[in-house]
UniProtKB/TrEMBL annotation:
InterPro entries: Polyketide_cyclase/dehydratase (IPR019587), START-like_dom_sf (IPR023393). This is Polyketide cyclase. Pfam families: Polyketide_cyc2. CDD domains: SRPBCC (cd07812). SUPFAM superfamilies: Bet v1-like.
Length: 151
């Protein structure tokens, strides 16, 4: 069974406006995420907007679609992946030295059964895949931090 919450966070020595600029440009998602190869938003970025995505793991590629569920400029961006029912989010919080950025994958209502079957069959099982997702979150946040801090 999928963990209902996977999460990683990082403190960035840059103002929230700079971090938001990077996080909310979903065309940059492949630059941050080790798994995402494409994220295309249709129409303006807002709650309700739809996306088409392409993910990669080794030699395996798979498409997904999603819908923006929350869009609070400068604070939060979240989207639901239609194929597995998970919600991915980025939340920004101002700190004394810049911004705390939290990336989460929520599965409070569970993951669709077909997704679990496929992860177990071709991705080494849910626990292993979820560990990989958390590592990917940490890698993504480190890349965003480096870009925001100008490194």
């Amino acid at each position: 069974m999928a963990d209902p919450l996977l999460q990683a966070e990082i403190d960035i020595a840059a103002p929230p406006e700079k971090v938001w600029e990077l996080v909310s440009d979903l065309r940059l998602m492949p630059k941050w995420s080790p798994q995402c190869r494409l994220m295309k938003v249709f129409g303006p970025l807002r709650a309700g907007a739809k996306t088409v995505n392409v993910n990669r793991r080794g030699l395996m590629f798979w498409p997904t679609t999603s819908q923006i569920t929350e869009f609070i400029p400068g604070e939060k961006l979240a989207f639901r992946v239609n194929e597995n029912n998970t919600v991915w989010s980025y939340e920004l919080e101002p700190t004394a030295t810049g911004t705390r950025l939290v990336e989460s994958r929520h599965a409070e209502n569970g993951v669709k059964p077909i997704s679990t079957v496929l992860v177990n069959a071709v991705m080494g099982g849910v626990p292993s895949f979820e560990r990989e997702l958390v590592q990917g979150m940490n890698d993504s946040l480190a890349r965003i931090k480096a870009a925001a801090e100008g490194r």
